[in-house]
Structure formats: C-alpha cells, structure tokens
Design a protein that fits this description.
The protein is an alpha+beta fold and 175 residues long. Helix content is 33%, strand content 26%. It has helices at residues 2-16, 27-42, 130-139, 143-158, and strands at 50-56, 59-66, 69-77, 81-86, 93-97, 99-101, 106-109, 122-125. The longest helix is centred in the first third of the chain and has 16 residues, at 27-42.
C-alpha cells in the first residue's frame, strides 16, 4: 500500500513540475523577429543587426554596433513573449508580447520605441514548406485554366477504353 501511495505522489510531482518551453518549429521566423525587434529597440536598421548563433532552443545571439563599440544581445522567444537583454549593457532589457498566426505562420509584434519614429507592426513569417509552395503555385493560376484541367481529368476518368466503346445507333454488328 505504501508503494502505491508513493508511486501516486511521485507521478503527481512529476506532472506538476514545470516543463521547459519546447523549441519553436519556426526558427527562421524567430531569428527574423529577434533581428527586427532588436533593431527597433536600438533604433537601427535591421541590416545593421547580425545574427551570430543559436545559444539554446528559442535563445539567439545577435551582434550590432552600439554605443561606439560592437555589442552582443541575447534575444529569447517563447510562446507569446520576446525578451531582449544586452550582454555588455545589462540595463537594456525589454520584454515584449507578440502574436503568432498559425494559419499564415507569421509572428506580429506591435512595438514602438520613443527614439524611433517607426511605429508600424513588425511582421515575420516562416518559410513555406514544399507542399505549401505547390499549393500556392496551383492557386495562382487563372480560373479558366483550373476549370479546363478539371474538365480534362473528369473526361479521362469517365471515358471508357476505346475497345469497349458501345456501337453507335447506325452501326449494327453483322453476325
């Protein structure tokens, strides 16, 4: 009986402990968001911010020329938060919220800095998979072409093989 109670308590403790955040499957989007948000926070052009390395899952290292020297910044991206922290400038720490649209696989950050006049939302999207690219290519075609292709496929499926074609009314087979 003790063993059963001990096992139940152990399972409950394991279930209640926090699990670390899972790595995002959209790493390219996370890097883009980190670069854009860091550039906006420092009032720099995103081209001036360089991606250096992936530190851990969802944590990225960026480099930028800031305050008369090359500075490194760590950007962590979780489910709905982005956290920026300077390695040399520890006082530069910001936490921002962002929205992720799962249908378009895009992250949107509404963030403006007092120093920068830009206030438009930051939008970064993940690269499309091969299937999504093919689907997009399919729907980019004109509708008459799509209808003609559907008609051709339907006629190929419905048409009987030539040897099995029924005789026309005027043709009678002689026996």
């Amino acid at each position: 009986m003790r063993r059963i109670i001990f096992a139940i308590i152990a399972i409950a403790l394991i279930g209640l402990t926090s699990v670390p955040a899972l790595a995002s499957e959209f790493e390219d989007m996370d890097i883009c968001l980190g670069k854009e948000v860091l550039a906006r926070a420092l009032c720099k052009d995103p081209l001036e911010v360089s991606y250096v390395a992936k530190v851990r899952d969802n944590i990225y290292l960026f480099s930028v020329f800031y305050a008369k020297q090359e500075a490194r910044f760590v950007v962590g991206i979780s489910n709905n938060k982005i956290r920026i922290q300077g390695k040399e400038f520890l006082t530069l720490t910001r936490t921002l919220s962002y929205e992720f649209d799962s249908t378009s696989k895009c992250g949107v950050v509404r963030f403006s800095s007092v120093e920068c006049p830009t206030s438009e939302p930051i939008v970064c999207c993940s690269e499309k998979t091969v299937e999504e690219k093919l689907d997009e290519k399919f729907w980019d075609r004109p509708i008459p072409d799509l209808l003609e292709e559907d008609l051709r496929k339907a006629l190929e499926v419905d048409a009987p093989p030539e040897g099995d074609a029924p005789a026309a009314d005027g043709d009678t087979a002689k026996q």
